[in-house]
Specification:
mainly alpha, 3-stranded antiparallel sheet, 3 strands, 8% strand
Length: 144
């Protein structure tokens, strides 16, 4: 019996804990790991719709909406109605969130060092290609 799904679940749990520990050690308390993933998307694609964020983060829109509400209360993002389609909400970074990008990149670098310790470049490439294939399979199965 294959246990890849179970192993992926364990990796997620442990990596989330490690990420939170590194954030805390760095003194970053403005956002948590899950919010960091949303901020990462916005640092690379500011002023995008909730639908686009959902697609890029793989978070359900209902989960994302609740997280964005908290992030807006924390002063990290602002939400506005799209000028083209009033039913669509556009999410933008605040100056506070923009100022946190360097800290996030430092934490991400530390995570990569932990994650890929004792990996060769080829092993990293093969591993990431395998994960991309799993994501592709899951997306097809979920009709995305």
């Amino acid at each position: 019996m294959s246990n890849g799904g179970f192993l992926i679940s364990q990796v997620k749990q442990l990596s989330d804990r490690t990420f939170e520990r590194i954030l805390k050690a760095k003194g970053v308390d403005e956002f948590n790991g899950a919010q960091g993933r949303i901020l990462y998307i916005l640092w690379n694609n500011n002023n995008i719709s909730i639908k686009q964020i959902s697609k890029l983060t793989k978070l359900a829109k209902t989960t994302l909406t609740a997280m964005l509400e908290r992030m807006e209360l924390q002063g990290l993002i602002k939400r506005t109605a799209s000028k083209e389609d009033k039913r669509e909400t556009i999410v933008s970074l605040t100056d506070k969130a923009k100022a946190l990008q360097e800290d996030y990149l430092d934490v991400t670098k530390q995570m990569e060092e932990v994650f890929y310790k004792n990996f060769t470049d080829k092993q990293i490439e093969n591993f990431e290609n395998t994960l991309k294939k799993i994501i592709e399979n899951l997306e097809k199965d979920n009709g995305r």
